[in-house]
Design a protein that fits this description.
Elements (H helix, E strand, L loop, with lengths): L6 H45 L4 H11 L11 E5 L6 E9 L5 H7 L4 E9 L2
Antiparallel strand pairs: 1-2, 2-3
Length: 124
């Protein structure tokens, strides 16, 4: 009977790249979910500020303040606020670029992926 001393090492070497890709995929998914939830919350905060009479620049600052955990600033993301008179709609659109940690997923999806959130509230 032949010796099987290196068999488990070879099997581990074959499975390790798949496990690493899976691990980084889970991390990327968690990061993207965090960004999505943050820009959604920032959009709601800014739309609420715009709907109660804040100016466009004040509403944009509210969104930037609410998105501090992802460094939501105009170079990193885009915050657009449109306000109107009473009874009209205040619309907040936030666009944030996504970068992947996993090189394989980043090359498949591409580097120009971004999340976009639009929130509309009626001006009081």
């Amino acid at each position: 009977m032949k010796s099987e001393k290196g068999q488990s090492l070879v099997e581990f070497a074959l499975v390790l790249p798949l496990l690493i890709i899976l691990l980084f995929g889970i991390i990327d998914f968690g990061r993207i979910l965090h960004v999505y939830l943050t820009i959604d919350q920032a959009g709601r905060e800014a739309a609420r500020a715009a709907s109660i009479g804040k100016t466009k620049s004040e509403a944009e600052q509210v969104a930037i303040d609410a998105g501090k955990s992802i460094k939501l600033t105009n170079p990193n993301g885009t915050v657009t606020v449109s306000t109107g008179s009473s009874g009209a709609n205040a619309t907040v659109t936030i666009t944030y670029p996504i970068t992947f940690l996993t090189p394989v997923i980043g090359s498949i999806v591409g580097s120009k992926l971004s999340l976009k959130d639009t929130t509309v509230m009626r001006v009081e």
